[in-house]
Every structure is written in structure tokens, then in C-alpha cells.
Amino acid sequence: MGPNRIRPLVFDTRPHKSLAAAGTPTSARRLRSRAAGGVALAAFAIILVSGASHAAAAPTDTVLPVPVAGLATGLAGPLVAQHVTVTTDTEQPGITRFSGTERTCACMIHWHNLTTGATGTSNLWFGLPATSGPAITGSGNLVATVTTSGAGGSITALPGAGLWIVP
Hints:
The chain is of the alpha+beta class. The protein has helices at 17-22, 26-49; strands at residues 60-63, 68-71, 79-82, 84-89, 92-100, 107-113, 119-124, 135-136, 140-148, 155-158, 160-166.
């Protein structure tokens, strides 16, 4: 045979040595593999359909980055200098809770929902912890400014501010 001659293709029809050595015919091995895959798929489908419990997301706290600073209730009032924390929860969509981050706060939060156009205010007053009731802000992107508040005219030297997303 010369170097320019094409050799005919020869296929090896003998079973692979590892399968033959195991003593298991190829078709039986395939059948077992398919059966195992079917059982795994059925188990996954049962878990999916049975409504396996999903882990609930914990409430999310966002600290407004610009702190509020000033005097509450006029010149004789307490000094206010702190951040405000915003809490949202996927279990309660459209609801926001406000709280003083460092200590008691006499603060007024003026919020604006940029997605829906809704606006409102929430008041934080003295007490530990300084928290407000739930504010129905609606879902969307929100922005807020924070001022000092109190009877007798409060003085805000630096308004606080920040933004957050409500689920």
C-alpha cells in the first residue's frame, strides 16, 4: 500500500472493555440511568408543586446618608444631630417605618414617592427608641428631607436627606 492510498474505515463493533468487564449490557445501564433521572425529576416536581415553604425576606433598614442637625422646640430645646433609619418589609408592601438611628429624635420626615407622586410627613418625637408609626408611602422610589420639629419653633441647621426603595 502506497502513501497516497486511502484506507477504508473500519468500525469496532465490540462493546467497550469497561462495560464488558462490568458484566452489564449497555442497554440495561442506560435504562437504569434514565430511571434515576426520572425519579430525581419526579421528586423535584413534587417539591415544587407541594408548595415547599420559602424563606421570607427580613425587613430592610436603610440609613439616610445626610444627618439632620438643629435645635428642637426653639433655642432652649434639645440638640438634634443624627441620622434617620428607614425600614421596609416585603411582607408589607407600600409601608415605611422611620426611626432615629443614634438616640432620641425630634424630627419631621418629609417624604415624596417619585414613582407615584404621593407625598407626606412622619413625625419622630422623643422617646427610646424614637420611632414613627407606619407611613403608607406606596411602593416605588422615595426621597426624603428631615428637619427638626417641636413646639415653639424649631431650628434646623442642616436638613437630613436620603432615598430608598419601597417594595
